[in-house]
Amino acid sequence: MAVTEMQSGQVGRSLPRRESTAKVTGRADYVHNLRLPGMLHIKVFRSSIAHGRIKRLDVSAAKRLAGVHSVITSDDVRKLIPEPYFGPAFHDQPILAIDKVRHIGEPVAVVLATDPHVAEEGVALIQAEYDELPGVYDEVAGATATTYVHDVLKPAGTFPDLKHLQGKKNTNIALDYQLRRGDVEAAFAKADHVFEHTFRTQQVMHVPLEPMVSAAEPTPSGLTIYTASQSPSFVRIEIARLLGWPENKVRVKVPHLGGGFGAKLYIKLEALVAALALITQRPVKLSQTMEEQFFTISKHATTFKIKSGVTKDGKIVARRCDVWWNGGAYADIGPRVTQKSGFTAAGPYDIENVHLDSFAVYTTRPPAGALRGFGIPQLVWAYESHTDLIARALDIDPVAIRRKNILREGRPQATGTKMKDAAIEQVLERLAARMNWDRPFDRGTGTVKRGRGVGIGFKAVIAPTTSVAIVNVYADGSCSLYCSTVDMGQGSDTIMTQIVADVLNLPIERVSMVHPDTDVTPYDMATLGSRSTFHMGNAVKLAAEDAKGKLEALAKEVGLPAGANVPVGEIFKKKYGMQAGNVVGSGSFIPSYKSPDHATGMTDNATPFWMIGGTGAEVEIDTETGDMKVLRIVNVADCGTPINPRIVDTQLSGGAVMQLGFTLTEEMQFENGQLRNPTLADYKIPGMRDMPAAMENEAVSARQHDGPFGAKGVGESATFGVSPAIANAIHDAVGVRLTELPITPERLFRALAVANGKPLKD
Amino acid sequence: MSNTSRLVNFTLNGRPVSARVDMHHTLVEMLRTQFDLFGARESCAQGLCGCCTVLVDGQAVSGCLYFAALVDGATIETVEHLGASDRLDPVQQAFIECGAFQCGFCTPGFILMTKQLLDENPNPTEDEIRHYLSGNLCRCGAYPEIIAAVKSAAAKRRATA
Q: ipTM value of the model?
């Protein structure tokens, strides 16, 4: 069937989110709301230290408390699951701590009761004693430390690039990705200038406003898990593996999510609730508090040492990148972050010689995983700050130096993969145009200074991954889409049904959405990394086209002339003599991909598509106080051809607002392994008054040739450039450079004081 | 139920109701466990995010901090009372038209606060909107669209006033 381009159909329209009415009336379905008959609430007793051996665990008082149903420790779990370790990359995370704790807040025991307040009281009665071990907190020191977070590495076996780590001892490095292109040392020796800087990012948290929540219920045929998860298919596979069951005994259901951002990926609370439901033979539910989320998952802190050789006219000829990722106590998906972001750590520039090392490092902090960008924002922070510093040192305009070096269509990227459908240049030019870059800029007066800056980044999508979709056409011509993509607010329900409506030429109201339910909806790798529009979008389109083809065949079978404009309901009636029957179309999509060579990091097919995002910032700084206002943020992205332009727009501004928090205020603060600020009172996410006065977004005119209707992912793109754009704007305004996030007024004020020759005491 | 529980009588979304609550039960907990109302929801549990916003005698409060035992004799209104799916309040309509939410978890709180803002100030400036809604957090970052929705709702209400 010919691919139909946007015409009069549903694709390309800014339809409101399909669940809009449910959301504004407070009736949207979240696991948060779920109550099961006879349900026990779970409360968790957590480690109070960062690293140590469990010497004694006394749960007797908790067990005696009136109203407590049971108290469970790893001893009970191991009777059900002898090897209760889970994780997507490594089987390293115990359902409850076994012998040892590895981070503050690690689950050690649980109390179950029908009244959650009783369970909480029970937790307060549990006592633990530990033999404390030295902590490993810093990612760079941790890479060579002799205190080991894990005695032996246990890769899950699903990723070929982790196999060489199987059984490895005496290391905290959970993945070492390297890329070698050309000869950087020779190029540095020949370069006119060599620049080297180190940049750091802090550990932050996703803070979905619906805190992580999962429930499980034993059933006659197995187990049903209700979970606020971004990856129902993975949860089923992993729970089945832990239990030694076939997949079909585990059912995973996911309604809407109250935010995800990567926090609710892979497997989080599901293994615990599954074990507890089977041990107690009761429905159980674990609703985390906001505080508990901070102990569950976070975004990697990083250290990035970047070195560039540059000609006197600003051409970058060599770049060396050393990146350390602070993975915390359990690998989660950190090794994937390390490798995939490693591909692009040298930036969207055409550089002949690249030497790159990227290390995932176990530490005794709460685990780190994916957060809106899979590591890319940390990298762009460094390489775009560095690029700006080079421009300033050589007295070249920051946009001009990027124009000179930018990766153009058809040129090989650091991995050797040739750029295709990557509108990097266009993003840069549209950003410069919207920022009025070639026009004079008001630099402020007196003690109030203004500046502006840009940052631009790109990302390879996680690959290879699979999506499967089913379109079920009913006898009246209406239909349902069965799809395991999770709508956590990004609008996937809406755009996926727009695709179906467009292919089947239906009004959007005639297409309904069946939410993820692994007994019903087919496999999807996960809702992550801006992959759904491209991967699931393609699968959905194939499924709808399959249904359309079958409807056409059915019409022919019942004797209708080809192209006859007969309502679908009439075709069914002719076939079955009444309103009866179904036509089921299915579609499965996996793009091509080639794993990088382990020794060189090279591959000619690093990604099914590229995401490109650039941000410009204008700032105003009070040099007497260090107070800074972000006056204007401009986000420009290449997301192919939008399926729903308004949703794309909200993804761009939403991504930028989130990254603004990571840039200016958010930081998990640790002291001796203790987290000092796991509450919204002390961990400041952006509110309405933190918004810049002006925020504008643009999706450049572009097309992903193999995307559904020319579309590709957008959820992360506006996070890339925000942090360096602001740091570059600060440098532009007041001549100081901040190399560490977040950029607080205090840090800025201290930097100003140093620049003025009057450094402040600590 | 412990011996510290007490019976409270109040008006909930226009109907007289009663409930037996413990002294430590919060308003939001009572609404979900005893009345199946899920529009007000606990998130930060510190009264800082606005997800649990409930109107008590017309005044917006943080339902996660407000003790259920205190509602005896009060009139309680939740987002569920504001509009049904076939007759939405102008604020709800404006939120839909402006795409002023993503995950929707914070949305009932924003809508109730917006309604209260417009009751007090039918034509707020952008500064006034930002100030009034600063106690509501949206992690999806739909703030530009929320500001647009408040302005649009104000215009709708003025047009029909």
A: 0.98
